Amino acid sequence: MKAVVYEGARKVTVKEVPDARVEEPTDAVIRLTTTNICGSDLHMYEGRTSVEEGKVLGHENMGVVVATGDAVSEFKEGDRVSVPFNIACGFCKNCLTGWTSFCTRTNPTPGFDGAAYGYANMGPYDGGQAEYLRVPHADFNLLPLPQGTEHENDFTMLSDIFPTGWHGVVLSGLQPGDSVAVYGGGPVGLMAAHAAMLQGASKVFVVDRQADRLQLAKSIDAIAIDYGAGDPVEQILDATGGVGTDRGVEAVGFQAHDHSGDEHPEMVLDNLVKTVRTTGGIGVVGVYVPQDPGQDDPESAGRIGWDYGTFFTKGQSMGTGQAPVKRYNRQLRDLIIAGSDKPGFIVSHELGLDEAPGAYESFDQRRDGWTKVLLHP
Ligand SMILES: NC(=O)c1ccc[n+]([C@@H]2O[C@H](COP(=O)([O-])OP(=O)(O)OC[C@H]3O[C@@H](n4cnc5c(N)ncnc54)[C@H](O)[C@@H]3O)[C@@H](O)[C@H]2O)c1
Ligand SMILES: [Zn+2]
Ligand SMILES: [Zn+2]
After folding, report:
1. Mutate which of 36, 51, 208, 366 for ligand 1 pocket (most atoms within 8 A of beta carbon)
2. Phi, psi of 207 (to 5 degrees)
3. Probe residue for ligand 1, chosen from 166, 235, 252 as the CB with the greatest number of ligand atoms within 8 Å
4. Are 6 and 144 part of one and the same domain?
5. How far is CA 301 from the centre of its chain?
6. How do residues 121-160 score in pLDDT, each as one tens digit?
7. Distance between CA 376 and CA 120 in Å, rounded?
8. Considering its fold, how many domains does the chain have in total?
9. Do 6 and 153 lie in a common domain?
C-alpha cells in the first residue's frame, strides 16, 4: 500500500510499504477515506522529537472497515468509522476511569503511558496517512458513523482536534458565563474556541499572529488578539477591565515563538498565568516534551522555567496532557449529525496522498490560508 513515511527532519515521502493487516484477533483494518495533517505532526516533521525514520505518520483517521479479527463483534466490513488518535485497551485503570490517552497497556515505551498511531514515543503503531490502517482493540476504540459520505469534513475532526479543543476547555474548568483566553489560533485553538462557545463561555479571546487564523476566529465570533501588534496580556487585560479572564487554554505547545519567530517554550505558560484571574484555571493541550532533540542539551530541554511562583500566588489550577478522545467523540458526533455543529469550518485543503510532502511543507511554514489539510487516500 501507499503511505506517508517520515525520513528525517523536513523529509516525508509517499512510498510503498507492507499492507496493514489483522495481527491480533481484536484488530480491525480500515481503508482510509480521510486522514488529516496535524500540528502535532509538525513537531516530528521539524525533527524536534525522537520519532524513528521509516514511521508511517498520521493519527487523525477515518474510513471504512475492510477486515476484522475473530474477536471483533461490534464492527463488520463496510462500516464507516472514526478512529480516536489514542490506542487504548479498555481494561486498565486509566481506561476504566476515562483516561484512554494514558492507557497503561498499549505503549511499551518505558516512561510513557498512552499510545497513538504514527507518533513519537507513543508505541510501535504505524499511522493512517496511508491507504489502510490497523486498529488494535477495535471494539473499544472505533466510533461508528452513519453510512455514506455526508459530513465527512466534520466527522474527520472527531479523531483528535475537536475532542482535544473540547478537553482543553474542560481542563480549564470553564463554567457557563466564564470568559476564556485561547492561546494559539491553529486548528486546535480554533476548536477550543468553538468548544468554549458550545460550553457556554460569555467571551472568547483567540491569540495568534497569523492573519488568516485570526480571521477564522472572528468568523465564529471570538475576539481576535494579534500578538504581533502588541503584548497579548495587556490587550486582554484592557478588554476585561484589568481583571483578566476566568479561564485560559494553551493550544500552542513547546515551540511557542515571539513575533520575530524566536522560540521561547515558557512564553505562553507565562502569558496565561498573567492573563487568567486569581483562582482561575488553565487547560494545556499544546504539546510539551521531556526531551527536545532540537536543542543543544536535549536531556534538559524538557525542564522549562516558567512563572510557577505567580501561578501559585494567584491560586490558579492547571490540567495537562493528551486528550482522551473517547470521552467526548460520541457526543460531538451526535451534534454533527443533528446538524447543529460544523467543526469542518477550519478545513482549507483537500488533497490526495501523493500531495502530502508539499502539504507538510506549506502547513509547516504556516503559509497564508493553510489552516487544516485533509488527505483523501
Ligand atoms: N493534547 C493533545 O491531545 C493534542 C492533540 C492535538 C494537537 N496537540 C498540540 O496542540 C498544539 C497546536 O496544534 P495545532 O494543530 O493547532 O498546531 P499549529 O502549529 O498549526 O498551531 C499553533 C498556533 O500557535 C501559534 N503560536 C505560536 N506561538 C504563539 C504564541 N507565543 N502566542 C500565541 N500563539 C502562538 C502559531 O502561529 C500557530 O497558529 C500543538 O502543540 C499540537 O502538538 C495536542
Ligand atoms: Zn492531531
Ligand atoms: Zn488501557
Report:
1. 208
2. -105, 125
3. 252
4. yes
5. 22
6. 999 999 999 999 999 999 999 999 999 999 999 999 999 9
7. 23
8. 2
9. yes
Ligand 1 cavity residues, CB under 6 Å: 38-40, 42-43, 160-161, 164, 183-189, 207-210, 213, 227, 251-253, 256-257, 267-268, 285-287, 322-323, 366
Contact 91, 102 (CB under 8 A): no
For residue range 196-228, list pLDDT tens digits in order.
Answer: 999 999 999 999 999 999 999 999 999 999 999
Q: Which grid cell sits at 29?
A: 483494518
Ligand located closest to 97 CA = 3
Per the listing, cell 470568559 goes with 179
pTM of the full predicted structure? 0.97
Please provide residue 279's backbone torsions phi and psi, each rounded to the nearest 5 degrees. Answer: 65, 10
Same structural domain, 268 and 182 = yes
Taking only the tens place, the pLDDT of each residue in 335-368 is 999 988 999 999 999 999 999 999 999 999 999 9
58 Cα–ligand 3 center, Å: 21
3-state SS assignment for residue 21: coil
**305 φ, ψ to 5°?**
-80, 115
Ramachandran angles phi, psi of 120, nearest 5°: -55, 135
Domain that holds residue 219: 166-320
Q: How do beta strands 143-144 and 373-375 pair?
A: unpaired
